[in-house]
Specification:
This protein has 255 residues and is of the alpha+beta class. The protein contains six helices and nine strands, in the order βαβββααββαβαββα.
Length: 255
């Protein structure tokens, strides 16, 4: 069960009455897709991986992350997955057997092929302000105006998954990847870019997002549907009560 951390009514129902346990508090980070394209720094090389190489990389680097899917090959090969990209410093090259000192990786999922969203109940003044920002952004793209997309009609969301980085410049390279993802989402007609990372993941400070669209402390609650015997309790680790890890792999099929 997932809800917002400050939803007291929901917590009382599921945690206090239904016996759920508070499990994780990941961060949902959302960024609007502007009318202008984001500038990609020349300090980074962005390369697309094929499915086999992406699968190998994810199994090696995120295979122990919570909720990592065993059928990661099926996820990466799904028609909704737009691809996997890595970013490395400009002066370095990406090689499968010899990786760069710093690098970042992310994959992108097009949810608009499955469902679409829209925002209702917004005041006319807010709609006018949003429309004005888009008009100015289209007319003066070099000003990089942070325009608000049209969220009042059906729109799609691009979801970033498999977000991971290593090295001293890993966070910076992830930021470049997010800029690239923004431009790709714009090409695909999506109006929001979203991702979900662990609450303790330092990458959340490098992923561009707007606080008004994001949920910094989503709440996941969990409950076992079967009771374990005494022997099973001694032999098995109760992962429902385990401490949160830094890395969290959110399966895009469950988003």
């Amino acid at each position: 069960m997932a809800t917002e951390k400050d939803n007291e009514a929901c917590k009382k129902l599921f945690v206090e009455k239904c016996g759920f346990t508070k499990f994780r508090t990941p961060a949902i980070l959302v960024h609007p897709v502007h009318s202008h394209s984001k500038r990609i720094s020349i300090r980074a090389n962005i390369l697309k991986l094929d499915v086999a190489e992406a699968e190998s990389l994810y199994r090696e680097c995120m295979g122990t992350a919570e909720f990592f899917p065993k059928d990661i090959d099926a996820v990466l090969g799904n028609k909704l997955s737009l691809g996997t990209w890595v970013a490395v410093p400009r002066a370095e090259q990406w090689q499968r057997c010899h990786r760069s000192t710093s690098w970042a990786v992310m994959s992108m999922w097009n949810t608009s092929e499955v469902f679409k969203m829209n925002v209702k109940g917004v005041r006319m003044a807010t709609r006018v302000c949003a429309a004005t920002s888009r008009f100015l952004d289209r007319a003066l793209p070099w000003l990089n105006i942070p325009s608000v997309p049209d969220l009042f009609r059906s729109f799609g969301v691009a979801f970033l998954y498999g977000v991971h980085a290593e090295g001293a410049r890993g966070g910076e390279l992830m930021n470049h990847l997010c800029r690239f993802a923004h431009n790709l989402a714009r090409e695909k007609g999506c109006r929001l870019v979203a991702t979900e990372v662990g609450g303790c993941d330092p990458l959340k400070h490098y992923i561009p997002h707007w606080n008004c669209f994001s949920c910094p402390e989503d709440l996941w609650c969990i409950k076992k549907l079967t009771l374990a015997t005494e022997e099973e309790e001694e032999e098995e680790h109760d992962w429902c009560k385990s401490a949160a890890g830094v890395k969290l792999f959110v399966d895009p099929r469950e988003f």
